[in-house]
Amino acid sequence: MSFMLLSFVLLYVASPLLAPRIMPGFEFLNALEKTDHFFIVGVISIVTCAGSVVYRIWYAEQKGYLANILPAGASIISLVAVYLVSRGHHEHRLYWSLVAAFGPAGIIPIAAFFHRIGRNLLRIRSVNRDVLLLLLKRGLKFWLTAIMAAGVLQVDYLIMARYLPAKEIVVYNLTAKIFTLVYFMYTSILNAIWPLCAEAIAKNLWSEVLGYVRRYIYIGVLLISCSTIVLVFLMPQLVGLLAPGKVVHVPVFFIILVGLYNIIRIWSDTFAMVLQSMSYLRPFVIYIPVQALITIVLQMIFAPRFGVSGILYGLILSFLLTSVWILPWCVARRRNMMVSKV
């Protein structure tokens, strides 16, 4: 809670400085409006990150179905809310569209989190202090890792806002949203097998762990590949459904490029899940800042030259140069160390 409040304060102070620099292409907004839009999206993002903790709690309690139902419900509410805002005649339609698009994904989990915590306030005194400190120490590591990962995965819109025209940002956003829905299915699978992986590692059953890795990488690659093929043929219809009245053309090459990027993510995220399931986060602390720097530099170089595809080039190369080989190597090294101790 204290971290969230501190983040709000820092965001409030930084918004007037960052918004004009990050949103130079939004000429229809004045400086104050840019600051307001930047701040509200930042607040919702912080709330979303804080609320997502409840999903981890549910997975630990073997209630992973709740962690899948809530985001799906939030997406439906967002879709309805955006539609209602678009049909209205609000003076600040963009502002309320942002709230409608991102708000439910943050408000619903944070409400569930506070409800979950409130039910257990009376039990806090019975918690062993040493156990609590150990959990906080490990939790801070995961928090730090998540913050650094945002530097890799969330910097794309900041780069686009500075270097790309609005039409190309729309192309990227529509394609990314569709693939995010598909990738969410795989993320749900990874979160579901996380406890199983942790249990198998604790028992030193590495053949079982590697079996999970092979099986679910295969499932993920098949899922993304089939989805990419379908989107190549159906993207015009989906764009017409998601952006009615807008003339938006998504190139086939860009669809394939986004599919390739998601396949690379599947490979990396599966091995990342194995390391996280044993709370071995040191590799992330070392390589993620390097990957974030590579991503930012490459996207700033490629975006002006190749347009929206340059954003994907930067992301793909950053993964190929770091996590694609670092994470499997770390898993193999950790496995050899644990097996040799038996």
Report on the architecture of this protein:
By secondary structure, the protein is mainly alpha-helical. It is built from 13 helices and no strands. It has helices at about 1-20, 30-50, 55-60, 65-85, 95-120, 130-155, 155-165, 165-200, 205-240, 250-275, 280-305, 310-320, 325-340. Helix 3 (about 55-60) packs antiparallel against helix 4, helix 8 (about 165-200) runs parallel beside helix 10 (about 250-275) and helix 10 runs parallel beside helix 12. The protein is globular.
Give a quick precis of the structure.
The chain is mainly α and 342 residues long.
**Percentage of residues in strands:** under 5%
Number of strands: 0
Distance between the termini: 42 Å
Q: For the residues shown, what is the average pLDDT?
A: 80
Shape: globular
What are the low-pLDDT stretches, counting only 5+ consecutive residues below 50? none
- The total of helices stands at 13
Rg from Cα? 21 Å
Proportion of helical residues: over 70%
Provide the succession of SSEs: HHHHHHHHHHHHH
